[in-house]
Amino acid sequence: MKRILIRLLLAGLSLLPLTACNVDRLAECIRIEGVERVRTQGFTRLQLVLRVANETGRNLRLKEATLAFYPPEASEAIATAVLAEPVVVHRRTTGAVDTRWRVEYARALAWMPLLRALEGGTLDGWRVSLRLKGRSGLVSANISEERVPLSLFLRTFGIDSTSVANTVNP
Q1: Nearest to 12 by CA among 110, 149, 157
Q2: Helix H or strand E segment including 81
Q3: For 73-104, b where at least 16 C-beta lie within 10 A, e where not — what string?
Q4: N or C: which end of the chain has fewer CB within 10 A?
Q5: At what angle do helices 161-168 and 112-120 cross, to 10 degrees?
Q6: pLDDT (tens digit, 9 = 90+) per residue, 74-117?
Q7: Using CA atoms, how far apart are residues 113 and 34, in angstroms rounded to an integer?
Q8: Which pTM does this prediction carry?
Q9: Which residues lie across from 130 on neighbouring strands?
Q10: CA Rg value for the chain
């Protein structure tokens, strides 16, 4: 479950740079280069330290982030990951960015169907909604997407269901 959340949270954090860079140059300006450390703190807390490069001239600040996961044909989310405290990526730097997340479940063991889908590489019907509030210099950004197919969301960041399955079940 920890690895699944890592992949999805990386994708969510990657959306913040849209406020700081020309969309055509986004991959050149901001990069998530890897995960340095993951630490669970109980069942509902996650610390994720990312190695991030910000080559823009502006500090990037992620104030709020929420990712909600929906199983096929469901009207309610089974799990939600919420950024516990704001995150800052300093301008013209490459380094570790510490993020802390709170994970909320609709019911006990609600994450099991998602884990099974990721292990099998079959994400058909799974959806993710996201809400991000961020800032780059003087510009604020509110990014919101509702029930995007999970496979499309992951592909946006170069992650496919096969690589997720290999990560979840090495």
Answers
A1: 157
A2: strand 79-83
A3: eeeebbbebebeeebebeeeeeeebebbbebe
A4: C
A5: 110
A6: 889 998 989 999 999 999 999 999 999 998 988 877 778 877 88
A7: 27
A8: 0.70
A9: 67, 145
A10: 15
| The CA-based dihedral angle spanning residues 49, 143, 81, 88, taken in that order and rounded to the nearest 10 degrees | 30
**Tokens for 36?**
């340095």
- Beta strands 127-136 and 139-149: pairing type? antiparallel
When pLDDT is cut at 50, 70 and 90, the band that residue 6 belongs to is: low
Which pLDDT belongs to residue 115?
73
46: left (phi over 0), alpha (psi -120 to 50) or beta: beta
Tokens of 149: 């197919």
**pLDDT tens-digit profile of 38-60?**
677 877 888 878 778 888 888 88
CB 65 within 8 A of CB 131: yes
- What is the distance between the alpha carbons of residues 148 and 115, in angstroms, rounded to a whole number? 18
CA distance 65 to 101: 9
- Residue 51's pLDDT is what? 78
